[in-house]
Amino acid sequence: MTTMLFSILTFLHIPHLQYLSNLLYCANQNRDNRACCSHLGMSNPELGVGDRCLRMCNIAPSGDRVNSVEKEDLVCLSNWNVIMYCARGGLRTIN
């Protein structure tokens, strides 16, 4: 499982798992982007993982952490583009 997971993460250009929470925290900038992720289908019943993927859209001290990755998380990670889109969409520019 570990070799297969590493191969999938490499293919999807997702960083090493030990840094996943840190990367998501940095990308989300302490913002709760679950509404965006949900709107874009990350909690769609067709994914078959319930609201599990939404935790990757709310990495903050008051939010969730991704301390381990389970088989069900591969569905979430295969939608990495949605997670990053919502993270970028939640950022504010300083003029």
Automatic annotation (TrEMBL):
List UniProt keywords, sorted A-Z.
Signal
Family annotation (InterPro entries) = DB
Question: In its keyword annotation, does this UniProt entry include Transmembrane helix?
Answer: no
Q: Which parts of the sequence belong to the Domain of unknown function DB domain? A: 18-86
Q: Give the matching Pfam families.
A: DB
As given in the record, the signal peptide range reads: 1-19
Taxonomy, superkingdom: Eukaryota
Query: PANTHER family given for it?
Result: DOMAIN OF UNKNOWN FUNCTION DB DOMAIN-CONTAINING PROTEIN, DOMAIN OF UNKNOWN FUNCTION DB DOMAIN-CONTAINING PROTEIN-RELATED
User: What name goes with this protein?
Assistant: DB domain-containing protein
